[in-house]
Sequence to fold (227 residues):
Amino acid sequence: MGATTEHFLLEKSRLVHIEKGERNYHFFYQLLAGLDETQKSKLKLTQPKDYAILNRGKCTAISEDVNDSIEFRVTCSALETVGVSEFDKNEMFSLVASFLHLGDIDFEATGESEGGKLTTKMNSSNSMSLQQIAEHLGCDADKLNECFTQRTITGRGSLITVPLDRSQSLANVKGCIKYMYSALFEFLVHKINKVSERSERAFWKTSIRAMKFAKWLQTLWLHPLLS
Fold:
């Protein structure tokens, strides 16, 4: 007996847009409530109200009955159960923190003399710089900025770089957050299925032993009685 976990229609839009009175995905709030001060300082994390993607709904707590710090410990225990190592768990925390900081990115023009290109700025003093975000994502800050503010198209065998405006660049950031969140979600689904697969193998291995034992028991006890 076993099970396979699948996912579809993951509500990625919630990451960058929530209605008034709603929260974003609960793990963001759990992370901010559950990490110790050393970990929060390393990831430059503060409170939910300080991050745009968490504060848009003007709701950062569900009720007095839900303790995000306790829920964080429950989630961490669940991650360990499905085989997520301590290293991978910390990498996940770093990635989720990057989503919060990416949500505070904005862009401004550098002037016509530079071709109207955009540079990245942070809306909150609590947020990481683009350089720090890039380090957590394992990429180059200049390349990351180019990915947000430029588009490369192919024309007649050559590559042409087209600068984007502020709204297009912000859309790229939102797309980046949604893509990475989806990839992280798929990683967890994969981990869950790996555990289910092992459980299934263990079940059948145990079942085969049980059937062999039953056959031996039948030979030992039932045959004399039926003869």
